[in-house]
Amino acid sequence: MTGKCENKGEGLNNENVCISLPSKPEYVSIARITSSVVANKIGFNIEEIEDIKAAVGEACNNAVIHGCGEDSNFNVEFAIYENKVIIEVRDNGNGFTLERCPVPDICNPKEGGLGIFIIKSLMDAVEVKSSPGNGTIIEMIKYVSEDD
């Protein structure tokens, strides 16, 4: 991973928004605000927008915590479609083996370790791509609900 955004041109009319942010907690809010603007443009309702903002915030927090430290960046890319948004959060961290991540115990909650679980509960589809030494990509998809 290069630390720079790569516009893949996958969105509607090649409309992608890509931001590269310093791996510092104070920059997560920029990604959340950007997700709100993008989701509003597509036509998500307020509840869906809040879900997207929360999921993006969790993914970015993971990138900040598990990325390569304050001297690196993490990237957020929004592919904009008529009825959905695909969001990728990428970091240059050490990566991890997904199968080794414990499933959270909801009956005995502890601090930390719920990020991916929360993201999956808020978004329609989530894929985590990571391996030791190769950073992490969290891809999230949210569809506009049809009952608006």
Describe this structure in words.
By secondary structure, this protein is an alpha+beta fold. It has one domain: Heat Shock Protein 90. Helices cover 30% and strands 25% of the residues. A 5-stranded antiparallel sheet has the order 1-2-3-5-4, with helices on one face. A hairpin with a 3-residue loop joins strand 2 and strand 3. Helix 1 packs antiparallel against helix 2. The model has no long low-confidence stretch (mean pLDDT 85).
Any key phrases for this structure?
148 residues; alpha+beta; Heat Shock Protein 90; five-stranded antiparallel beta sheet; 3 helices; 5 strands
SSE pattern, N- to C-terminal: EHHEEHEE
CATH topology: Heat Shock Protein 90
| Unreliable stretches | none
Number of domains: 1
**In percent, how much strand structure appears in the residues?**
25-35%
What about the largest sheet?
5 strands, antiparallel
CATH architectural designation: 2-Layer Sandwich
Mean pLDDT: 85
Q: What percentage of residues falls in helices of 4 or more residues?
A: 25-40%
Number of strands: 5
Shape: globular
Query: Structural class, from helix and strand content?
Result: alpha+beta
CATH superfamily: Histidine kinase-like ATPase, C-terminal domain
- Put simply, the count of helices is 3
Radius of gyration: 15 Å
CATH class annotation:
Alpha Beta
Q: How widely separated are the two ends?
A: 39 Å
